[in-house]
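Annotated sample (chain length 64).
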Amino acid sequence: MTVTDVRKFDPKMLEALVCPQCQGRLTYDAAAQELTSRAAHLAYPIRAGIPVLLIDEARVIDKD
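Output written by the structure step:
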């Protein structure tokens, strides 16, 4: 993937997106390129500017 292939995630999309597991709010982590659900303890990847909201693709995050 080249620099021109990288697309940015539009944080305004957060208004319309929810966690597919718990239907809770998501937060955007720009550094990790992930959307996180603190309620479900999951982080969903963002690939080429598109959030991948599949539970099977999410990684488990600490319950802190």
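Annotation: The chain has one domain: 3-60.
Annotation: The first strand starts at residue 27 and ends at 29.
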